[in-house]
């Protein structure tokens, strides 16, 4: 049995940092609800499809925007997820720090994109502040964290420990993971316990082009994901972490559904539903960590599937 984590990073962006107070109401509707001529394809749609198939989703909610726009929109997001009986966890994008009404950190000015560029003390404060905002918005147990853009480092784990958060899912070997300071020289692809924190890395694979790619709805074809899931199961892996976003089923303009990605999502959910004897779609609350003492090589996907995905992506870009 392979534990599969379907994770959704829930974020709001105002498409730039000018006039954000004016743009926020429209941005909130666009990024959270995703209205299109064929219906909403944002967060509620994702929740509905998961519930249709009886699957668990892990929703990493970014709360720092509430330090600018108040707790009401954050509470609305939390309420949507809770009404669907899905799991809420903590996400953090430092880009919102300098937009807060009240200073979140002393002697910090200007835009900073990556959490890894802050000290452990600063990360500890930011994570604590973000967790408190989520709690005030109605979220209950929070035991897992993911850094925005996967831009964490070893200090992040110390900051999580200081805040009593035992799980992290920020490690991504295709981006910042290898120079995070966590198990230097090793590509972490299976869960580990490091600095007292259980790290559940995002699943990555080699697609035959000479680089690693992480498993994400907009970055992988359905056939790639299906093949990788079977491969992970046959190899005796303990976890498989998939990434998505609340706005990922929309086109780039956020004004219509991305039919290719919607189809991937529907096919993935149907596959996981039909193969419950092999794949346990899980969350982090009440999770019994399954750790290994070895780190295998990343999964492989054949080049022909990469080519087929590239054709799909060309089609998607043409009609975005």
Structural description of this entry:
Strands 1, 2, 3, 4, 5, 6, 7, 10 and 11 form a 9-stranded mixed β-sheet that branches. Strands 9-8-12 form a 3-stranded mixed β-sheet, with helices on one face. The chain starts with a strand and ends with a helix. The longest helix has 17 residues. Helices cover 35% and strands 15% of the residues. β3, α5 and β4 form a beta-alpha-beta unit. It has a single domain, classed as TIM Barrel (Alpha-Beta Barrel), CATH 3.20.20. The protein is globular and about 50 Å long. It is built from 9 helices and 12 strands.
Helical segment count? 9
Integer count of domains = 1
Mean pLDDT: 93
- Uncertain runs are none
List the helices and strands and how they pair.
Blueprint: E1 2-10, H1 20-33, H2 43-52, E2 58-61, H3 66-69, H4 71-83, E3 87-92, H5 120-136, E4 144-147, H6 154-162, E5 167-168, E6 192-194, E7 197-199, E8 204-206, E9 212-214, H7 222-234, E10 239-245, H8 259-274, E11 279-281, E12 299-300, H9 303-318
Parallel strand pairs: 1-2, 1-10, 1-11, 2-3, 3-4, 4-5, 5-7, 8-12
Antiparallel strand pairs: 6-7, 8-9
Structural key phrases:
320 residues, TIM Barrel, alpha/beta, three-stranded mixed sheet, 12 strands
Concise structural overview:
This protein has 320 residues and is an alpha/beta fold. The chain has 9 helices and 12 strands.
């Amino acid at each position: 049995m392979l534990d599969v984590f379907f994770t959704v990073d829930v974020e709001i962006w105002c498409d730039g940092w000018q006039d954000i107070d004016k743009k926020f109401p429209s941005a909130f509707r666009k990024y959270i609800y995703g209205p299109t001529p064929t219906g909403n394809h944002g967060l509620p749609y994702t929740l509905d499809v998961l519930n249709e198939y009886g699957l668990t989703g892990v929703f990493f909610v970014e709360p720092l925007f509430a330090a600018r726009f108040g707790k009401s929109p954050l509470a609305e997001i939390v309420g949507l997820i809770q009404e669907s009986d899905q799991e809420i966890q903590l996400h953090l994008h430092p880009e919102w720090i300098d937009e807060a009404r009240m200073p979140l950190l002393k002697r910090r000015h200007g835009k900073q994109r990556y959490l890894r560029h802050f000290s452990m003390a600063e990360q500890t404060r930011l994570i604590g502040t973000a967790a408190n905002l989520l709690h005030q918005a109605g979220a209950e147990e929070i035991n897992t964290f993911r850094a925005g853009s996967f831009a964490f480092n070893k200090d992040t784990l110390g900051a999580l420990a200081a805040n009593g958060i035992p799980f992290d899912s920020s490690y991504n070997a295709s981006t910042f993971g290898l120079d995070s300071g966590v198990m230097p020289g090793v590509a972490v692809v299976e869960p580990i316990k490091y600095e007292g924190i259980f790290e559940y890395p995002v699943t990555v694979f080699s697609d035959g082009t000479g680089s690693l790619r992480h498993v994400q709805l907009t970055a992988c074809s359905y056939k790639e994901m299906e093949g990788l899931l079977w491969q992970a199961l046959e190899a005796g892996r303990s976890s498989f972490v998939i990434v998505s976003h609340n706005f990922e089923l929309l086109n780039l303009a956020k004004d219509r559904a991305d039919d290719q990605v919607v189809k991937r999502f529907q096919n993935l959910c149907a596959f996981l539903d039909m193969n419950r004897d092999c794949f346990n779609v899980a969350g982090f609350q009440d999770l019994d960590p399954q750790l290994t003492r070895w780190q295998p090589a990343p999964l492989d996907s054949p080049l022909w599937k990469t080519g087929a995905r590239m054709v799909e992506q060309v089609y998607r870009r043409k009609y975005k």
